[in-house]
Amino acid sequence: MSIIEIKNLKRDFVVGSETVHALRGITFSIEPGEFVSIMGTSGSGKSTLLNILGCLDTPTEGSYTIDGVDVSALSRNELADIRNHKIGFVFQSYNLLPRTSVLENVELPLMYNKHFSSRQRRERAMEVIQRVGLETRIQHTSAQLSGGQQQRVAIARALVGDPVIVLADEATGNLDTRTSYEIMALFQELHSQGTTIAFVTHEPDIATFTSRTIKLRDGHITEDFPVATASAQAALDALPASEDY
Amino acid sequence: MNFANLLKIALRAIMRNKTRALLTMLGIIIGISAVITMLSLGEGVKSGMTSEFASMGTNSIMVMPARQHRGGVDMGNSTSKSLDEKDLAELEKSCPHVASFSPSVSAPAQMVFGSRNHSGSVQGCSPAYLTINNYSLERGLMFTEQDVQTYAKVCVIGKTIVEELFPDGTNPVGQTIRFGKIPMKVIGVLKEKGQGSFGNDADDIALAPYTTVQKRFLGIKYFTMLEASAVSQAASEDAATEISRSLRKTHGIDNPENDDFDVMTMDEMLTSMDSVMSMLTLLLTAIASISLIVGGIGIMNIMYVTVTERTREIGLRMSIGARQRDIMLQFLFESVVLSLIGGLIGILFGILFSWAIVALISSSGEMPITFILSYKAIFASFVVCVAVGVFFGWYPAKKAANLDPIQALRYE
Q: Is the confidence at residue B205, as pLDDT, over 90?
């Protein structure tokens, strides 16, 4: 069963007296374990698509099924549950809670999940923090972390609820090249462990680290092809050594 | 999200900016401390006056000319002249439940002894005054019925006057004090009593036969007031009825509606004092509550600001699965906790203030008052704080819950 199934998805926005057709009938699916990049320029509709994928927005027409659940019939609260249990978000600007420790940031999704006790929450959070390699910094707040580390925390947070898919929106957008490759290496590691990832980006070199690319333009899919995945770790090693001051 | 987590989040958010929290709570703190103080003082005065009344003698009955239509304990001077010897004669015959009567008149008097003087008043009464008003003699004697019959120029004085006129410790008994132009022989000294029911100094008193005061000081034939003592507290009602009946007879009144006098038993006096104090307390408390409304508005204001400040955070929480109810509860908790902490501080201050005010008033002797710690008031304050927090935090919390996550995430 596909993780994600999109059929003829359309999304219109009414802005004043005009209607903007952000998505004009998109169809595709994502299978479990795929690492898909969604590319396009601004105005291509990729943000709108991501919002719909993330159940933050609902389509005007067409269907969206995630893990077998058709979201068009769901109430606002039910959509919130889907976001909590099935989806993990990684944003461009990390969106961590300020003045809050790494541990508590990662636990946050589980606070809204009544199936987890306080102890289970803590254990699970520690697990994913280790997966992203930040076990030495669990009490630090975001002010004490670098951009790359903050994004790792965000990734851990996205993983903590064991989602069926991780949605990343320009996850390397605020990072320098070296850190971007570090993060992509992390994503590739997660992918090799079986995580399904959909990654929105406009940077072609980032897209080479994924296994499939869907290109959007003016609300349509123009291309959808598999990618010969480059190794992010190799690219990282190939970078010239950083200059010391 | 469970209760403990919501509480922790709310406390953390409040502690994040302590100055702001304190300023926000100020309205609640002032409001609650004012309310607690008002309630406490009201209860304290009631309690103080009740015990003072008790010290007056629980069998006491007061008869005053001209009916007072207000519920107040109005012991002020009346201009009516309706009580006199004729009434007294009939009363003494026809009131089996009354142990004794003491007509009351008073006149201002400048008391002089040697080179010392004291400005006060002379209280005309009958020998029964002592029992009715719970006084006793320390030395000497009280004047007698015969003294009353003969307009005798004798007096019994209280400790304060003794201190003023005989500071060197001379025995006042047997000495003659000049009241204005009138010489009066001191035949007795009253035992010290302390503070009277209305904050007056109960030892600043000079008693003389009422007939003497009527004839020699005032030139009148009527009584300002008539005091009586029922045979027992239980008999007070019957005594009051008998007195009323007798007075109606001597005044020729058929219809009780037209009574030109007022008979009050101690119970009635207490009840009316109680109701006056309750009304006063209620009024003051209501005024103090205005502060609470202001405080609530302050909370609402700050919560709106908080919600705006944390728009991105709200968007983030929604994107990871927070429902509208979760967001709503998060901010409601914050406003309620703010209100409760303010209430707690207000209660502490209120208790402190009322304790200080009671101490001040007690020491100045202006009014009988005791310190009352009302658990009811404290509990009510907590409930009010929660209500204020919920009521004034509601709209900001609703606004937060209704945010669109996508817009919120984009907010700068």
A: no
pLDDT digits (tens, 9 = 90+) for B262-275: 888 888 888 888 88
**pLDDT at residue A53 is higher than 50:** yes
Residue B256: exposed, middle, or buried by beta-carbon count in 10 A (0-12, 13-18, 19+)?
A: exposed
For B362, the 3-state DSSP assignment is helix
CB within 8 Å: A76 and B323: yes
Cβ-based contacts of A77 with chain B (< 8 Å): 323-325
The residue that leads in pLDDT, B27 or B370, is B27
Question: Which among A77, A99, A109 is the nearest to B320, CB-wise?
Answer: A109
Q: Extract the tokens encoding B39.
A: 């309630």
| Higher-pLDDT residue of B341, B81 | B341
User: Which tokens go with A39?
Assistant: 């590319």
Name the β-bridge partners of A37. Answer: A199, A213
* Interacting residues of B57 by C-beta distance below 8 A, sequence separation 6+: B131, B132, B133, B134, B229, B266
pLDDT of residue B77: 45
Q: Write the ipTM.
A: 0.92
Q: Which residues contact B33 (CB under 8 A, 6 or more apart)?
A: B345, B346, B347, B348, B349, B350, B353
d(CA B53, CA B401): 59
Question: Helix, strand, or coil here: B194?
Answer: coil
Separation between Cα atoms, residue B52 and residue B60, nearest integer Å: 13
Token pair for residue B45? 């005065």
Is A77–B318 a contact, with Cβ atoms under 8 angstroms apart?
A: no
A chain contacts of residue B15, beta-carbon cutoff 8 Å: none
Q: Could you give the residue ranges of the DSSP H alpha helices within B95-209?
A: 129-132, 145-149, 159-165
Range scoring the smallest mean pLDDT among A19-28, B22-31, B43-52: B43-52
Mention the CATH class of domain A31-57+84-236.
alpha beta
- Tell me which range, A122-126, B51-55, B71-75, is most confidently predicted by mean pLDDT: A122-126
DSSP three-state, residue B82: coil
- Domain residue limits, chain B: 3-53+272-410, 81-259
